[in-house]
Design a protein that fits this description.
By secondary structure, the chain is mainly α. It has 16 helices and 2 strands. A two-stranded antiparallel sheet has the order 1-2.
Length: 315
Amino acid sequence: MSTTAIQTATREDQETAPRAPESDRAKAENSLGHKLVAPAIVLMLLVTAFPMLRALYLSLFQYTLTAPEEREFVGLNNYLVALTDQLFWRDTLNTVMIMVITVAVELVIGFAFAMVMHRLIFARGVVRTSILIPYGIITVVSGFAWQFAFSNTNGFVNGWLPFIEENFNWFGEYGSSMIAIMVSEIWKTTPFMSLLLLAGLAQVSEDMLEAAKVDGATWFQRLFKVILPNMKAAIMVAVLFRALDAYRIFDNIYVMTAGANGTESISFLTYRQVIEQFQLGIGSALSVLLFLSVLVVAFLIVKLFRVDLASARQE
């Protein structure tokens, strides 16, 4: 029998073998974890339950703030209107595209930053603090800064890119506007991604890396066979947090384009319906759809990574 066949058989045996009973340590940690998060969950429910239920209730009405006496029960019609509107699906596509591209780029750059910070010997504190500076800046402020940077009159981006015309207007069309928005998002939140990945790198055993190096493994082999598999849980947490945050993007779009050139997100569409057009019914329906879509995104990410936390703790 070949080595590949033996490895395949061994893997199948491991997958079909009954899982070992949960250890006492794991049970104790799970019990402690539930007790620690219970107060926070109760507080969050008290704070968020009423607005969520109120939004769900209002989404069942045709309700305009300028004419509250004309409120009319329409059932699920607001959801039908939203789901059959081309604008909703266009904004959903924008939101998903921003989320996928920004999180993917941040994952690569953030991992590179995390590797540098993890291997530093001198000035670790200074470097880590410097990298985290963009994340400490208020999103609105960073949005205005990048709007100025991409300006075709007094910005510096056009001058730094030799393949771009000096008077090129980044906010004049859809594609370039989306690039500007995503660049500002990546610059702002990559430090957060690198911080989470740095915590994951700290969990990778140096003995395993040294053993792989002694066995003749190259740097890329150690990266893909040792480092990344042992960081799977940390990568999932980083991707999950950033994906959910990116899916709710609002500030950068509001500051940089105000939704012009078709750059709206779902959050921005909800804002326009409620704040600008005073359509509380359809706006509440959009907020409920946004909440449900966030849950779907979180579910898909968790299923995609399939992280066994007990195995990650080596139990």
